[in-house]
Write a structure and sequence with these properties.
With 434 residues, this protein is α/β, with parallel strands linked by helices. The protein has three domains: 195 residues, 3-Layer(aba) Sandwich (Rossmann fold); 83 residues, N-(1-d-carboxylethyl)-l-norvaline Dehydrogenase, domain 2 (Orthogonal Bundle), CATH 1.10.1040.10; 133 residues, NAD(P)-binding Rossmann-like Domain (Rossmann fold), CATH 3.40.50. The chain contains 18 helices and 14 strands. The chain starts with a strand and ends in a 7-residue tail after the last strand. 46% of the residues are buried. The structure holds uridine-5'-diphosphate-xylopyranose. Uridine-5'-diphosphate-xylopyranose binds next to helix 9. InterPro entries: 6-PGluconate_DH-like_C_sf, NAD(P)-bd_dom_sf, UDP-Glc/GDP-Man, UDP-Glc/GDP-Man_DH_C, UDP-Glc/GDP-Man_DH_C_sf, UDP-Glc/GDP-Man_DH_dimer, UDP-Glc/GDP-Man_DH_N, UDPglc_DH_bac. Keywords: NAD, Oxidoreductase.
């Protein structure tokens, strides 16, 4: 098939590249000339494991191309994906400006039957709005379908290649067949394509993200209970997750959820509900718990040290989660700002996100090129993002180079017993005190 993808952000670039990998001819379009130039040279504008090799190979084998001209990309195209950004608008609901602009341009370029696929996360009813906009100028028949994306940053390629499911909201049989053919290489009996009406597909994405965010805030509250009751949240989590109705994933307490999706989607669902006269109180609590959780390590540090002025604090990890350089709503930003605001000296290291983080952290936070260089002379070390290289630290070495011996493990990845045996005061999240 010949496919065009509008928008080369996370979703668009992964979608286009993975579809070309399955043999389709894909042209990715973006208004950002610099981005397109980088992609044409075989570089990628984001950090995503495995993606760069796929881009290069498929470009070399002429199944994947990049352009700034939407009209050129859409010549003879059967399917066009709209995968442009939907930042939160003033009310908290997703801003559809980019989506509708793309829809308008797509409409002008349609000259044969085309399936227009909405990949961006959009409010319920957007499919219909896109259809109206495309209809103004399309010169041939078309269908608009909703196909929300569930990929996770850091494992986006794998998530696309082996999805748990593909959700397609579609009203026409013809478009349904096109989408079935398109996704055939990626689905299995247990990981099916779920066809449904477009509005339900649009809500599915929001509801899934809001549910996952709820699980995390729930566990962060369970962790707070554990700390007060002297329980171990790791054990409680295992005990809960083994119930098949609950399951293990997304039950890890930590420093709060961040990223481009959960915070924004939780707010979007609340806004949607409010506009309909409903109160989604549960999500208000999810958000409140998350705000508290982003302060958790700071509050623990204040409790331990009293005043933080003059204390040197080392941060391991800045990105909102490992395997990405994404700093959007990263809990590390809150922590660094609170520490610096209290007069502490903050030195941070992140294996990938340092450059993206630098302008966001401000002048009071120093960056170190290496984890132990960040810890040098520190009174306390904070683990914020659980990158693999931080999981098994050399406690002896840390003991020698740090000024104080205090560890705040925001992800419960360190061995508390070993850390304590090496002379450290250890604080986790929902783990028992020594
Ligand atoms: C999420 C959804 O998982 C994905 O389906 C959707 O398409 C986009 O949003 P992503 O933002 O890439 O993906 O990250 P994810 O791995 O889901 O993690 C989100 C946040 O939750 C991170 O800050 C992470 O640290 C936190 N988290 C996750 C926890 O605190 N505990 C957990 O158990 C899991």
């Amino acid at each position: 098939m010949k496919i065009a993808v509008v928008g080369t952000g996370y979703v668009g670039l992964v979608t286009g590249t993975c579809l070309s990998e399955s043999g389709h001819h894909v042209t990715c379009v973006d208004v950002d000339e610099k981005k397109i130039a980088t992609l044409r040279e075989g570089g990628i504008p984001i950090y995503e494991p495995g993606l760069e090799e796929l881009v290069r190979r498929n470009a070399r084998e002429r199944r994947l191309a990049f352009t700034t001209s939407l009209a050129a990309a859409m010549r003879d195209t059967e399917v066009v994906f709209i995968a442009v950004g939907t930042p939160p608008g003033e009310t908290g609901e997703a801003d559809l400006t980019h989506v509708l602009t793309a829809a308008e341009q797509v409409g002008r370029a349609i000259e044969r039957y085309t399936v227009v696929v909405n990949k961006s996360t959009v409010p319920v009813g957007s499919c219909e709005r896109v259809r109206e906009v495309v209809a103004r100028s399309a010169r041939a028949e078309f269908d608009v379908v909703s196909n929300p994306e569930f990929l996770k940053e850091g494992s986006a390629v794998d998530d696309f290649m082996r999805p748990d499911r593909v959700v397609v909201g579609v009203a026409s049989e013809r478009a349904r067949q096109v989408m079935a053919d398109l996704y055939q290489p990626f689905v299995r009996t247990e990981q099916p394509i779920l066809f449904m009406d477009p509005r339900s597909a649009e809500l599915t994405k929001y509801a899934a993200n809001a549910m996952l965010a709820t699980r995390i805030s729930f566990m962060n509250d369970v962790a707070a209970l554990c700390e007060r009751l002297g329980c171990d949240v790791d054990q409680v989590r295992r005990g809960m997750g083994s119930d098949r109705r609950i399951g293990y994933p997304f039950l890890f307490p930590g420093v709060g959820f961040g990223g481009s999706c959960f915070p924004k989607d939780v707010r979007a669902v609340m806004t949607m509900a409010r506009q309909l006269g409903l109160d989604f109180d549960l999500l208000r609590a999810v958000e409140r718990v998350n705000e508290r959780q982003k302060r958790l390590l700071f509050d623990k540090a204040v409790k331990h040290f009293g005043a933080l002025a003059g204390k040197r604090c080392a941060l391991w990890g800045l990105a909102f989660k490992p395997k990405t350089d994404d700093m959007r709503e990263a809990p590390a930003l809150t922590l660094a700002q609170l520490l610096a605001g209290a007069g502490a000296e903050v030195v941070a290291h992140d294996p990938v996100a340092a450059e993206v983080a630098r302008p966001l952290l401000g002048p009071h936070v120093r960056l170190a090129g290496e984890p132990y260089a960040a810890a040098e002379g520190a009174d306390a070390l904070f683990l914020v993002t659980e990158w693999n290289e931080f999981r098994a630290p050399d406690y002896e070495r840390l003991g020698q180079i740090m000024r104080g011996k205090v560890l705040f493990d925001g992800r419960n990845v360190w061995d508390a017993a070993r850390a304590r045996a090496a002379g450290f005061t250890y604080f986790g999240v929902g783990r028992p005190a020594a």
